[in-house]
Specification:
It is globular and about 40 Å long. The protein has a five-stranded mixed β-sheet with strand order 1-2-3-4-5, with helices on both faces. The chain has a single domain, classed as STAS domain (Transcription Regulator spoIIAA). It has four helices and five strands, in the order E-E-H-E-H-E-H-E-H. By secondary structure, it is α/β, with parallel strands linked by helices. It is about 45% helix and about 30% strand. A hairpin with a 2-residue loop joins strand 1 and strand 2. This is STAS/SEC14 domain-containing protein. It comes from Paraglaciecola mesophila.
């Protein structure tokens, strides 16, 4: 990691519905944003880890990350899997380059063993996630 200090770019809001974690993320993000994401999600993940849980990520803006941040995100997902994360659904809401964004996040998620899917509607995503939780 570089010795630098930058402000986190992007926005993040987290809510919980039972064993479903809903993450609203606005991009573009940077490495500092991923570090903030990891820190803010840690307590949720630990509290939910007694049983299988899933996450719904709703992206807006430009949901892309620089290479260093992408690598941190892969590590973060793998750590969450160790805490009983079983699936992730992604929705792109008001994203200009949806195809590029989906390819970007597919590449990140394919570096893990996490079940994942891309959805247009929140209701369909939540239904799928609840099925994965069991």
């Amino acid at each position: 990691m570089n010795n630098r200090t930058f402000a986190a770019h992007g926005g993040l809001k987290i809510t919980r519905e039972g064993q479903l974690l809903i993450i609203y993320a606005q991009g573009p993000g940077n490495t500092e944003m991923v570090l903030k994401y990891q820190k803010e999600l840690h307590d949720y993940r630990v509290k939910m880890s007694a049983k299988p849980w899933a996450s719904l990520t709703i992206f807006s803006g430009e949901p892309l990350l620089p290479p260093e941040a992408s690598s941190l995100m892969v590590d973060s997902i793998k750590q969450a899997q160790q805490l009983n994360l079983v699936a992730n659904a992604i929705i792109f809401d008001n994203v200009q380059y949806k195809t590029i964004s989906q390819q970007f996040w597919s590449n990140i998620l394919q570096q893990t063993t996490l079940k994942h899917g891309f959805f247009e509607e929140e209701a369909a995503a939540k239904t799928w996630l609840k099925e994965q939780i069991g």
